[in-house]
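Known limitations

Files may contain more than one protein. Parsers should not assume a single record per file. Below, a two-record file is shown to illustrate correct handling: read the sequence, read the token line, then continue until end of file.
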Amino acid sequence: ELIARVEMLLRARRLSLELRLRKDDVEAFIHAMTHDLWAPLRTVTGFAEAMAEDQSSRLDAAGKHQLDRIQAAVRQMWDLIESLVEFSRIGRKAIKLKLVDLDGLVRLCVEEMRSDIDGQKASVEVKGELGQVEADPALLKIAIRNLISNGVKYVKPGVTPRVEIWTERHGHTV
């Protein structure tokens, strides 16, 4: 019985070490990948902004539309990279539950995403008072931004994106 316990403890330690090494590998990969993506994205952003400032009067409607699509894709790539960075930080930070004002947090997310929402000609409507929840504010913000972003981006062709946000209370939970 003692030998079985020792073997089980050794196996648990080995698995824990393997998991820690894999976690470190994932963090290193995300760091390297995001670092490698920033430089070319900054270059594309700079060229697109320069073209918008210097050449927009020379572009026809199709050219302006294509430039708008490039800028929207660049913004989407920035968001994806920032989400990866935030996601990689989740594993390093302890989850800290606090009372979070959903109305304020959703309003902040919508304000921060306003250019993307307007760029997709989408609408985001908050229905009623959202209330407060106990959550990790940083993680909840990531989740709300991702939900709004997906709701704005992934719609059938020809459909105007519309995101409705509301809460439902079930007993003491929202």
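...continuing to the second record:
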Amino acid sequence: NSLPDYTPLDENATICIDVPLELNPNISGKDEFIVGTATTLTGNFDSTTAFNNRFSGSRQQYIFTKTELNTLGFDAGNITGISFEIATLGSANSNSNYTIKMRQVSQENFSTTSFLTGTFTTVFGPVIYTHQPSGWHDFEFTTPFVWDGSSNILIELTHGGANSANNAQTYYTE
């Protein structure tokens, strides 16, 4: 899979597919699962990034299928964190109102360029998040997300940006 084509709802909107994330569950006797191979980097101008500083704000959604998670040994229970791996800082090292929300969905992919809606659980933020120039960035949830093990998981990431030149380059699965 390559980065998806999308028509933004506004200049700050992005819908993402196949972005590798490290999910930190409190289940299955394992401390973490890495979803995706993370062999490709987004570009400086790509909206699909963990830390968007090219625009004044960002909204992204990711779907992880139950099949994808079950194949890794991921079972129903609490998800307590998530991580993103980046290779570059981008134009700024902080993002305001950094918020991560999650919900269970039946969809396995995005059939349109519209964001999925419904009742989300806010698991992190909003906070001013300062990131390092590269490496894994771990987000320990303030509220665990309880996954039922039979639905797919939708993750929504929103935050403010520097409205400058470059985003942090983020690893993803192609």
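Parsers that stop after the first record will miss the second one. For reference, the second record is described as follows. The chain is about 5% helix and 45% strand.
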